[in-house]
Amino acid sequence: MDFLRPASWEEALAAKAEHPTAVPIAGGTDVMVEINFDHRRPEYLLDLNRITDLTEWQVGEESVRLGASVPYTKIMEHLRAELPGLALASHTVASPQIRNRGGVGGNLGTASPAGDAHPALLAAGAEVEAESVRGSRLIPIDEFYTGVKRNSLAADELIRAVHIKKADGPQQFSKVGTRNAMVIAVCAFGLALHPETRTVRTGIGSAAPTPVRAKAAEEFLNAALEEGGFWDNGKIITPSVAKQFATLCSGACNPIDDVRGTASYRRHAVGVMARRTLTWTWESYRGARRLTEGAA
Amino acid sequence: MRVNFTVNGRPQEADDVWEGESLLYVLRERLGLPGSKNACEQGECGSCTVRLDGVPVCACLVAAGQVEGRDVVTVEGLADFAKQRAEHGGCASGACGTSLQDARQWAAKGTDSQTGEGTGLAPIQQAFIDAGAVQCGFCTPGLLVAADEMLERNPNPSDADIREALSGNLCRCTGYEKIMDAVRLAAARQGEAV
Amino acid sequence: MAPNGAPIGTPTKVTQGSRTKGGIGESTLRPDGILKVTGEFAYSSDMWHEDMLWGQILRSTVAHAEIVSIDTSEALKTPGVYAVMTYDDLPTDVKNYGLEIRDTPVLAHGKVRHHGEPVAIVAADHPETARRAAAKIKVDYRELPVITDEASATAPDAILVHENRDDHHIGHVPHPNIVHRQPIVRGNAEEAARKADFIVRGEYTFGMQDQAFLGPESGLAVPAEDGGVDLYIATQWLHSDLRQIAPVLGLPENKVRMTLSGVGGAFGGREDLSMQIHACLLALRTGKPVKIVYNRFESFFGHVHRHPAKLSYEHGATKDGKLTHMKCRIVLDGGAYASASPAVVGNASSLSVGPYVVDDVDIEAIALYTNNPPCGAMRGFGAVQACFAYEAQMDKLADAVGMDRVEFRQLNAMEQGTVMPTGQPVDSPAPVAELLRRVKAMPMPPERQWESSEGADVRQLPGGLSNTTHGEGVVRGVGYAVGIKNVGFSEGFDDYSTAKVRMEVVGGEPVASVHTAMAEVGQGGVTVHAQIARTELGVAQVTIHPADTRVGSAGSTSASRQTYVTGGAVKNSCELVREKVLEIGRRKFGTYHPAWATAELLLEGGKVVTHGGEVLADLADVLEGESVEIEAEWRHRPTEAFDLRTGQGNGHVQYSFAAHRAVVEVDTELGLVKVIELACAQDVGKALNPQSVLGQIQGGTLQGMGIAVMEEIIVDPRTAKVRNPSFTDYLLPTILDTPIIPVDVLELADDHAPYGLRGVGEAPTLSSTPAVLAAIRNATGLELNRTPVRPEHLTGTA
User: Fold this and answer.
1) What residues of B are in contact with residue A32 (Cβ under 8 Å)?
2) What span, in angstroms and rounded, lies between the C-alpha atoms of A268 and A250?
3) Shortest CA gap C207–chain A (Å)
4) Are residues C103 and C224 in the same domain?
5) For the domain that residue A209 is a member of, what is the CATH number?
6) What burial letters (b/e) apply to A138-156, b meaning 16+ CB within 10 Å?
7) A226 falls within a domain
């Protein structure tokens, strides 16, 4: 095993081009477990800790450019307003110690269906900034996950940042585990309301081979909200709409039975989370509307 | 490979480090600092919690090569770290830790830890002893580092704050009740001292 | 006083030393506390020696197979490798070990019987070198069908897990794949059943729990010049290890010198050997010190677990709520090797009725040999599984009769004088009804504690930080349970401890030192030993010598027995030392004061005093130029074996009792549980160190909660392989899962025990689990006959 310590992003890209099998290590919270348990012996470890701009973020007009190694703790502390869904998801990641080290880049690199950031990224809308010595590209989050623990990165590419749309409405994230802290998702659900486009987006974790959106559920809800004039009248969403949304979210799952839970439970739980997060976000949207109207 | 970094304020150099080694292994097996514990080596138990550039992390999940040039505080340096913080009214960089050359079985001296006077413990360490928060003690070093850091950030934590901050540190002996007591005690004493 | 006004026992009295500071009854602090908070306390995994090698164990990747061949040649060629050993390299004819039955191969021979069984061992200069070399060992397995349950174990054509058994249980078991069977028959259950107005039956399943001590199995073996070996090790019983290790090495016991290093928890999981023999073999083979440290993955294969169990119960009750009879059958899965299974069977059967009066019983408990992971000792030891089942039955019966569940239990509660199903009368306080009264009387935790001015605090809700509910679907439930656990080793076992106590003057001060082989695993035995010495010898200064095999056996740190038995031995040796000290005093100063001739002299505050408090001499003067040292064994009352057909016999030494009230909040839609409170009341006879007593009760309570809602080793029934050997998927309660645990301690002396004390450690682990289950049933209305209960069981999605 070789340990590569690039001092700059350019050096890191060059190293990855020269050694495409090199495994990037930043927070180490995935890679080191595999090494400690003898599940993996990469030829090269590519340490990204010395590249400080990976731990920085920029808040732009439309989106936040989040460095791949920004620790979850920082997202919770500093980006709660801009990225509320991701901030909530960050808070559910493992333990404080892990949140101090791990970042979204690692979640994306590992591309485990159980990664906590995925549903929030899918719901908010995001693009992954991947780069190699050949150049840089933005991969839409919907195209990023290609299989169980597989993503659309080329062998010589590294994740530099994630561009996440700033919230234009309420967002929620919910995750089921059989413990009240420090738990890997049995399944997870992210929901974002986008009042500007009058759309909703979803993200489901750990209930299919990859993180997925519940597109049929989104389309149903978009239509139902539009038809009922809900965006304008701010009425409470009817239980039948919420129920149908939940059912469609369950239907978007393609889960398995494993030691963490049954497929049947995962489908059920995603439905419950979908209904609850819809209630929470919609209540929040209605509350914000009332405030705005009150001020006007 | 060779790794140079600072531990408890003292420069350290580790040689012939295998690239897959963790910071935890280097501390325990190469630097004679076995206070950070190896309970799970998968980031699930917090027994190896150390401060890396001031931030609590699981030493088992930091590759040895990643600490080059960085600053680590372990439980062995916690008392000095807390003392310097108290003196400077802020974050301490830590001073010399205890270097353990030979690991030996413990031998209780004539006195027991009734007061801890003169031993120069950090307030959180003394509180753990006083509250009965130590049984087998394997989780204790990690809990101390995590709890000390929490009290640095949040001097008046609610019970829920304590539970959240320590949710990454498993204990199998105590049922956590005495650990809660210890952290409350340390916070109260910290409050009195100010 | 008991609810009916009858006396339930007498409080404990102490005379000698009751005026010495730091004696029994005070919450003195741990002597190892400072070392443990500074990181200096040396655990077995902290051992280090110049030139030491690292040992690595190659384990079977399948559960049941013949070993066709093992090829170690590539491993041996690896640079940095000093030794590779297999069964063929074992030095003597003794190639097996075991606590009671020597059925466990040091290294597999011809066959592996469970997933993760040791097949070969490697010593190398770095752990990674050792791992890579172990990976190069080629083992050719021919897989066999796996035996995983009672049906497959006792099928007519079942493969025998152990052929040619010659242990002392084979004569009375119905099938060679049954390790041990213990029936208990008393009265006539069939006939008594006719008196029942209500009959309740239940089938219960108890999952496989892991001790999950945090300090992994580890140790350092150092070869000695005399051909022997020094072993620094974390264990629960040094001398039991020694008796199993020495014959395999071909060494006399005095050439295997064992020293207890720091033990990072045990809970039964260190009763059996793990890496002890392997490290010694490699050290003796290479002539170099060898350290072995399991990682967490290996630890799940490196020790036995709590027996999973299937329990069938039938109870009857009259319409006024009196129990008529009980029939039960308990099937424990012992896994591939016997370990402590026979004793677990004895406990499960003899305690299967619980702390209730039932005169007519028909009980059977068995342990199976299967290809599942070996199971043995864990805190509660057979009594835990039974308590889960009989407490579920009590709730069902109370409901059938139409009585309050606590009152129903109180009506049938045993008390001092009750005769156990084994025919043994309970001859010390058994305040079962009172303990229930006390937990019920505690104030209830407030409702809806998650509500705050800033909205729901998810940390106080089921799901916690995962943000699954803000109160939706959350229903509160309350449940009660009470249990009975035996203290000490039972069934005729010669259960003794040894203590060496020395008294002398050091620097002008009288000092006592206590040397035992007791394994301090965190429980605080070392604290208590110093307290006993202060009480008995009236000195301030007590030195606790490290535990090793240079002193006689202290028995196991198990069965809630150490304070009773080794504490008793320390007390006894101190008393003998005290007599010697007084003899010296009489010899030196007897002529100065007539009181020396009277019998009642005490040692207090560093002085010899009369019962009235008059000072006769300073201990420093008495002991000047002299020292007193006594090593003596001490035994509790003998017990008897249970009759193999009727289960009758005075099998137990002492019983201990705890009751719990669980308050839970269940997200009934998602099936997530938050335990809000686990209130406990326990009789401890005499709290030698009240703070330690609370620590034991709270810790035991939480382990009981773990198996109620999250902890379980999952074994694939098709392959008998473990599916979740890690802390990622074997979940322990975090501090955020943990309820408040208020404790009400009762101290009713057992006159047969030192200071009247009662073993503390295990009883709280029993009743915690069924109390939580009862509370979840109360919240959900579901029957829930299995533990742990998982979200899918609460949502109909299993």
Assistant:
1) 22, 43, 60-63
2) 6
3) 14
4) yes
5) 3.30.465.10
6) ebebbebbeeebebbbeeb
7) yes
Structure tokens that stand for C272 in this block: 């059996």
Q: Which of residues 50-69 of B touch C (CB under 8 A)?
A: none
C243 and C232 in a common domain: yes
Query: Domain of C351?
Result: 305-490+641-794
Give the one of A2, A45, A95 whose C-beta lies nearest to B63's C-beta. Answer: A45
Inside any domain, residue C762: yes
Check CB contact of B9 with chain A, cutoff 8 Å. Answer: no
Per CATH, the homologous superfamily of domain B3-76 is Beta-grasp domain (3.10.20.30)
- C790 neighbourhood in chain A, CB within 8 Å: 178, 261
A296 pLDDT above the threshold of 70? no
**Which amino acid is located at B91 in the chain?**
C
The residue-averaged pLDDT of C737-765 equals 98
**Would the pLDDT of C587 be above 50?**
yes
Separation in Å, CA of B168 to nearest CA in chain A: 4
**C324 and C471 housed in the same domain:** yes
Asked if B113 and C34 come within 8 Å (Cβ–Cβ), the reply is: yes
Same domain, yes or no, for C557 and C585? yes
pLDDT at C559 over 70: yes
- Which residues in C lie closer than 8 A to residue B79 (C-beta atoms)? 38
Chain B hits for A41, Cβ within 8 Å = 20
Higher pLDDT, B97 or B26: B26
Query: Which DSSP string do the residues of C691-732 spell out, in sequence order?
Result: HHHHHHHHHHHHHHHHHHHT--B-B-TTT--BS--STTTSPP
A6 part of a folded domain: no
CA-based Rg of chain A, rounded to a whole angstrom? 19
User: Is A171 a domain residue?
Assistant: yes
Any chain C CB within 8 A of the CB of B108?
Answer: yes
Q: Is pLDDT of A284 > 60?
A: yes
Which pLDDT tens digit goes with each residue over C620-654?
999 999 999 999 999 999 999 999 999 999 999 99
Residue type, C5: G
Judge whether A31 lies within some domain.
Answer: no
Domain housing A126:
52-296
The pLDDT-based confidence of C126 (bands split at 50, 70, 90) is very high
Question: What is the number of domains present in chain A?
Answer: 1
Is the distance from CB of C150 to CB of C369 less than 8 angstroms?
Answer: no
B41 contacts chain A (CB < 8 A): yes
CA C739, chain centre distance (Å): 22
Is it the case that residue C235 has pLDDT exceeding 90?
Answer: yes
Long-range interactions of C392-399: CB distance < 8 A, separation 24+:
C392/C202, C392/C204, C392/C770, C392/C773, C392/C774, C392/C785, C393/C200, C393/C202, C393/C313, C393/C315, C394/C315, C394/C354, C394/C356, C395/C479, C395/C774, C395/C777, C396/C200, C396/C202, C397/C198, C397/C200, C397/C315, C397/C317, C397/C323, C398/C321
Q: Do C45 and B38 touch (CB under 8 A)?
A: yes
- Give the Cα separation of C592 and A256 in Å (integer): 88
Residue C278 and residue C136 share a domain: yes
Residue that the structure tokens 């101090």 belong to: A100
Task: Give yes or no for a contact between C267 and C306, defined as CB atoms under 8 angstroms apart.
Answer: no
Average pLDDT over residues C365-389: 98
Per residue in B134-188, pLDDT (tens digit) is 999 999 999 999 999 999 999 999 999 999 999 999 999 999 999 999 999 999 9
Query: Is the pLDDT reported for residue A165 higher than 70?
Result: yes
The complex scores an ipTM of 0.96
Which has the closest alpha carbon to C733: C710, C764, C763?
C710
Number of domains comprising chain C: 3
Residues 106-125 of B with CB under 8 A from A: none
> Tokens 């299937």 correspond to what residue?
C310
**A99-108, C13-22, C646-655: which has the minimum mean pLDDT?**
C13-22
Average pLDDT of every residue of chain C: 96
Task: Let me know whether C298 and C309 are in one domain.
Answer: no
